[in-house]
Amino acid sequence: MTIKKLLAGAAAAALTISAINVNAFAADNLLGGDINLGTGWGGEFVDAGKFADVSEGDVVTVEFVINNEDSYHLVKLSSGADGWPALECSTKAVNNQEDEAFKNQDDGFAVVSVDGSVSYTLTAADVSAIQSSGMVLMGYDITVKKLTVDAPAAEEPPASEPEDTSTPTDSTVGDTNTPSDDKGSPNTGAEDVTVLAAVAALAALGVIISKKRK
């Protein structure tokens, strides 16, 4: 086997391993199991090492069920730094539920009212915060089933316009009657014949006059 083939094989293997790692990371539940956050205003700490590969724009998804021990239910993502400050993305959460009761408070808590999920798009500041201090998953009267991080979904390219295969309908297409420069009738050649006949007559008259003079 040539060195070129060996290098090509190694590159392909590296790409395969990389793809496996990315997919495994995306599918990972960052929690050890179901986390009942109860009504004690607690939080579940997620170590910074689990966010080593995240990037700005990645999406954190929290899947949960409602405990129904109280009349309201909340979700929040915070940094693990002192005071557990809310992540920027926690005030810009995207509601993946059909329930319109979802909303965000100024302190970063999202109000939810049915079982489902909430997604958060990480900002550059969020990535820096969780990679240095970890993340605290906070909530009230919910049990979190899953916490995942994934790359944003690829946008589908806009549909291309279908090619127009219809026959042109322009009235000028195929028209062989090209107009003459004159604004009158089309040139039929009659004028040319008349001129030639006149020239011939004049020539003949000249010959007759010349003979008479002789």
Describe the structure.
With 214 residues, this protein is of the alpha+beta class. The protein has three helices and ten strands. The chain has helices spanning 3-27, 124-133, 190-213, and strands spanning 35-36, 43-46, 59-66, 73-79, 94-95, 103-104, 110-112, 116-121, 135-140, 142-150. The strands form two sheets. Strands 1-10-3-8-5 form a five-stranded antiparallel sheet. Strands 2-9-4-7-6 form a five-stranded antiparallel sheet. A hairpin with a 5-residue loop joins strand 6 and strand 7. It is elongated and about 75 Å long. The protein starts with a helix and ends with a helix. 18% of the residues are buried.
Spell out the blueprint of helices and strands.
Elements: H1 3-27, E1 35-36, E2 43-46, E3 59-66, E4 73-79, E5 94-95, E6 103-104, E7 110-112, E8 116-121, H2 124-133, E9 135-140, E10 142-150, H3 190-213
Antiparallel strand pairs: 1-10, 2-9, 3-8, 3-10, 4-7, 4-9, 5-8, 6-7
Short description:
The protein is α+β, with helices and mostly antiparallel strands. 28% of the residues lie in helices and 23% in strands.
